[in-house]
Amino acid sequence: MADAFNREAFTLLGVGTAVVALRTYARVSMVGIRRLMLDDYLMVLALVIYGLETGAAYSVGAMFHGLANNSMTDEQRKNLSPNDPEYTLRVNGSKLQLIGWSLYTLLLWLLKTCMCVFYTRLTVGLTHMKIRTRIGFILIGVTYVVTITAILAGCGAPFSKNWQIYPDPGNHCQPAISDFDLFFTVVLNVVTDMYLLSIPLPIFWKARIATKKKAWLLIMFSGGIFVMMAGILRCALILTAGANGAQQAGSWAVRETFVAVVIGNLPMIQPLFTKTVKKIGSTFASTRGSEGQSHGVSLKDMVRSRNPRTANALSISSSAEEIIDSRFKNSQKGDGIHVVSETTVNTESLHENEAKSDIARSHCVVSA
Hey, which residues does 340 pair with through a beta bridge? Predict the structure, then answer.
């Protein structure tokens, strides 16, 4: 069982690392190294924290056999000698649980901060959304302080009660299964995620864009729902795990944070994916165009004959497109959301080994 979890944990870490690396590559390719923003650097820090959390979860089973100061009767506590190896395992296992909880909380709240920073770029020009993102930063900061305080100080004084064996320190001083820690973490985690979801979703819901694009954006930015579900599931499993509570706490922390890492990076990877698909499509179109020219039909004519709107794809990126309001209020009737996009289609001619390029540009302003 432990070996299976170890393989799972480090596999998830590998995938998470690849996701963050792909996100970083996407951002550098779009804006360059010098124009990377705060969330890009915070995500690298989050990856380091994720690695430490995975290491802590691994150590719970590999070094301390899933033992902590929980799931013991009063008689067992009384008869367990401080010189017994099990005593040392339980004490150190409890200390590691505190470390694990702290890393878990830090990682989740770092990811929330990254998303909030991203939303500030996504909503540039929308004054009322600027206020909401600021509230988001305040909420993230306050809830993190409350959560980490509950974890580290919820047991009371002295701090060593968090790994006390005898007498029984009580559930709130058993970090592996503490109801107190679980309650504060789950509730505040869900509250902040729900607020963050309320920033982008109404914007996309009201936007007048193709239904398929709208559905994809809503799904992509609703990933926080899956993180909330994972957190609630983790809480329920820890409460019902009994003697395996310590092991379950570490195992499900890794799974939940993996989901959070993937979801948090998805909006940044999406433009790279779209760009790659466009390149493949452009290459295919160029090949077809060369064949068409041999029959007296040019790709240039084919591109121009199409509806320009069909060439547009919505990419969510600070360097590509912005959801704005004030920049177009004076020039457009109505208010709300304006999505500005530019599509470039390149073709190459093979006549006399000379490369020529035709650029078809289309500007689309959509008002909601």
Answer: 365
Instruction: Write b or e for each residue in 181-202: b if 16 or more Cβ atoms lie within 10 A of its Cβ, otherwise e.
Output: bbebbbebbbebbebbbebbee
pLDDT at 300 over 60: no
The DSSP secondary structure of 46-101, one letter per residue, reads HHHHHHHHHHHHHHHHHTTTT--S-S--HHHHHH--TTSHHHHHHHHHHHHHHHHH
pLDDT digits (tens, 9 = 90+) for 260-284: 999 999 988 988 887 888 788 777 7
Residue 114: burial class (beta carbons within 10 Å; 0-12, 13-18, 19+): buried
Using the predicted structure, report yes or no on whether residue 193 has a pLDDT greater than 50: yes
The residue among 53, 64, 56 whose CA lies nearest residue 244 is 64
Listed residue (262, 323, 320, 318) closest to 37, CA to CA? 318
Q: Give the distance from CA 264 to its chain's centroid.
A: 2
The neighbouring-strand residues paired with 317 are 321
User: What average pLDDT does the segment 141-163 reach?
Assistant: 96
CA distance 77 to 247: 20
Tens digit of pLDDT for each residue in 195-253?
999 998 888 888 888 888 888 888 888 888 888 888 888 888 887 776 676 677 778 88
76 and 243 in contact (C-beta within 8 Å)? no
pTM reported for the whole predicted model: 0.76
- Report the candidate in 40, 45, 85 with the shortest Cα–Cα distance to residue 67: 85
Q: How far is CA 69 from the centre of its chain?
A: 33
d(CA 367, CA 208): 7
To which residue do tokens 């509250």 refer? Answer: 191
